[in-house]
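Lecture notes, part 5. Sequence design as translation. It can be helpful to think of inverse folding as translation between two languages: the language of shapes and the language of residues. The source text, in structure tokens, appears below.
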């Protein structure tokens, strides 16, 4: 997942000298000083919670002055004095906000969360003050209407187009009355989305399954038991075992625990997050956010929020996105029903005559996988240590793009678990800095994502190198073993690294179109195509080495993995599509939703005949992607990009996994270009044609299902 901090400005470096007052003590605020760190990364070792608020408020003040300067300019509006001036505004605010919101996701605390809640309406108002400024819009419109006179290149034309449309899409053409209401909506949404995400983190952290009796650990892998014992000890419960709602804990528990009652208990806690009628309940917030978005879209002249969002996507409209989802739904559902029938038979063999429940699925799927393919995930994990997987990712990047990676120990970092790497070209020239943060903790939200601390741009003819980060929640090492990954976690590592490459290899002039600043349904192409290399036998032998013996993964095991490649794809695809369809249901409403979130979700899922054995990958109360993460009306983008990535990877399958010509082409036409051109044109420049859906169907085994 790619998370881009939603800033209102360009993340340029720059500084003024200033001190903040705290209880009569003068404290140097590092945000007000030029970064003197290696590679000018954020000075995490100096940054304190008390630095954020004064720096953000000063950043707002400075950008207001910069905007006023643009508006008051007596010269005729030009690209340089209006568009470029706006592109270059907000330097201080950007550099502070980038750090602040990234830490709020990856290493938060109550103080940071309180600051975020306090400042959300202020930042929303600041954004509105820019995009609802009539005088500013008039200047931008003059440049837009007369762009032929300015002899703009492609990239300049693109940032002008983006800026003009951002004004229109932000309400610049609305009446004063409607502008007032729009400001109210934006302020309410800023607070509501923030609260939604905070509630999920709190609910996830609040639950523990504490096991005291060793017999209740039956079926669980040793490393999971060791991790649970270590977690218990750290929580003052030595001699017991603690399992949490972190994916690296709850998912293997559901997969291996032979205790059906305990599986049900932890599953219910997982799927009822933020749905417990307490002060962390998200049911009303989900409806509120969806309705506010709908009202905003209608104010702006769009039928629905989805129409508003998808105008800027490859899909262009909800009908196109829904068509893809619906075309895939029936074959996925048919396969899932066959898989459910297989589970039912195995349960009956074991004397369980009850219907299949969601908490049965992962447990019996694993048993069937072992029975059908002689494949046990625990047999695979010793070959997928985090360290060796990282080396594998590096090797793929070296073979494709000539990149080299050097660990840095002299660079400040925001948590002791984080590692920092310099990325260079084959000739040693600097590309960028990469932070990697792999393990779960209570200060980090769930999931996996990539983000940026500094976005690439050109300044005075020189490339300003990016600083990017990938954040995951992989299984922790134990006293007896390093961090061992499931193959799903291996795929996640490759996925997020694909996003990182998109940010690192960016080579554009203007920051606002750099790296991952592309439509949501295109941003997942670089990430998802990387996953393909992880599963290739040639590549797997580069990194899949037994953590004890160093033995390369045997051909027989790879063969079993390949034979099982489409196994359980009915379930995986169905739960994903269900969540995508739920997202579209919330955001294609033409009037306010009057039902509660549970009823709305149930009705939406009944319409597509989602079986009771499966729930959406994310339910309404913990669907962070769409209610707090920037993917509203956009969760379909993973499958849309799935069409792109499988079609694109065919080139490498046919011509060689590390074909240098195609690697150069993908880098030049996709990774380096950011959002400088229409994404379909960029794709066709690489592939030579628009993508076909057939490779995706084959990859998932859905081409065989009727």
């Amino acid at each position: 997942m790619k998370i881009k901090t939603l800033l209102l400005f360009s993340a340029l470096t720059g500084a003024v000298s200033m001190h903040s007052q705290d209880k009569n003590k003068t404290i140097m605020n590092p945000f007000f000083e030029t970064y003197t760190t290696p590679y000018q990364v954020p000075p995490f070792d100096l940054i304190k919670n008390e630095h954020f608020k004064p720096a953000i408020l000063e950043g707002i003040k400075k950008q207001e002055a910069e905007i006023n300067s643009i508006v008051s300019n007596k010269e005729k509006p030009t690209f340089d004095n209006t568009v470029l001036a706006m592109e270059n505004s907000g330097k201080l605010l950007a550099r502070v906000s980038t750090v602040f919101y990234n830490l709020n996701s990856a290493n938060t605390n109550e103080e940071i969360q309180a600051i975020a809640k306090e400042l959300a309406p202020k930042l929303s108002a600041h954004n509105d003050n820019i995009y609802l400024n009539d005088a500013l819009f008039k200047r931008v419109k003059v440049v837009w209407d007369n762009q032929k006179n300015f002899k703009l290149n492609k990239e300049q034309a693109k940032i002008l187009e983006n800026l003009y449309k951002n004004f229109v899409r932000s309400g610049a053409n609305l009446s004063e009355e409607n502008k007032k209401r729009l400001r109210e909506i934006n302020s309410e949404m800023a607070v509501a989305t923030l609260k939604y995400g905070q509630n999920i983190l709190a609910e996830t952290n609040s639950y523990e399954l504490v096991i005291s009796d060793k017999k209740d650990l039956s079926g669980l892998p040793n490393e999971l038991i060791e991790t649970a014992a270590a977690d218990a000890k750290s929580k003052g419960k030595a001699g017991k075992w603690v399992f949490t709602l972190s994916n690296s804990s709850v998912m293997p528990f559901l997969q291996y625990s032979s205790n059906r009652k305990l599986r049900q208990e932890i599953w219910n806690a997982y799927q009822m997050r933020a749905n417990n009628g307490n002060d962390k309940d998200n049911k009303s917030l989900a409806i509120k956010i969806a309705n506010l978005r709908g009202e905003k879209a209608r104010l702006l002249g769009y039928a629905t929020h989805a129409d508003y969002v998808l105008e800027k996507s490859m899909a262009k409209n909800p009908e196109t996105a829904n068509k893809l989802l619906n075309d895939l739904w029936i074959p996925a559902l048919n396969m899932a029903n066959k898989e459910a029938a297989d589970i039912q038979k195995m349960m009956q063999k074991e004397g369980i005559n009850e219907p299949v429940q969601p908490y049965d699925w992962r447990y019996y799927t694993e048993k069937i996988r072992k029975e059908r393919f002689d494949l046990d995930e625990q047999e695979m994990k010793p070959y997928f240590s985090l360290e060796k997987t990282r080396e594998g990712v590096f090797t793929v990047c070296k073979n494709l793009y000539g990149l080299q990676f050097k660990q840095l120990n002299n660079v400040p970092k925001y948590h002791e678990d984080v590692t920092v790497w310099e990325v260079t070209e084959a000739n040693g020239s600097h590309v960028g800095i990469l932070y990697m943060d792999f393990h779960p903790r209570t200060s980090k939200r769930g999931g996996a994502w990539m983000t940026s601390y500094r976005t690439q741009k050109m300044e005075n003819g020189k490339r300003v190198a990016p600083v990017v980060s990938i954040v995951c929640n992989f299984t922790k090492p134990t006293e007896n073993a390093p961090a061992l990954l499931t193959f799903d976690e291996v795929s996640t590592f490759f996925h997020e690294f694909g996003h990182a490459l998109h940010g690192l290899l960016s080579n554009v002039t203007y920051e606002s179109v750099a790296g991952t600043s592309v439509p949501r349904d295109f941003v997942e192409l670089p990430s998802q195509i990387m996953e393909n290399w992880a599963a290739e036998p040639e590549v797997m032998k580069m990194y899949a080495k037994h953590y004890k013996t160093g033995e390369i993964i045997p051909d027989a095991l790879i063969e079993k993995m390949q034979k099982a490649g489409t196994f359980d794809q009915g379930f995986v695809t169905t739960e994903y599509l269900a969540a995508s369809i739920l997202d579209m249901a919330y955001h294609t409403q033409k009037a306010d939703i009057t039902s509660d979130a549970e009823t709305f979700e149930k009705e939406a899922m009944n319409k597509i005949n989602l079986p009771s054995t499966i729930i959406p990958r994310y339910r309404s109360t913990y669907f962070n992607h769409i209610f707090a993460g920037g993917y509203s009306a956009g969760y379909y983008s993973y499958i849309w990009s799935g069409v792109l990535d499988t079609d694109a990877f065919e080139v490498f399958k046919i011509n060689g996994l590390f074909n240098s010509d195609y690697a150069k082409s993908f880098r030049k036409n996709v990774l380096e270009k950011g959002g400088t051109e229409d994404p379909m044109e960029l794709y066709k420049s690489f592939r030579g044609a628009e993508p076909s859906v057939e490779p995706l169907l084959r990859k998932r085994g859905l081409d065989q299902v009727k």
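The translated text above is only one of many valid answers, since several sequences can fold into similar shapes. Residues 329 and 577 are 7 Å apart (CA to CA).
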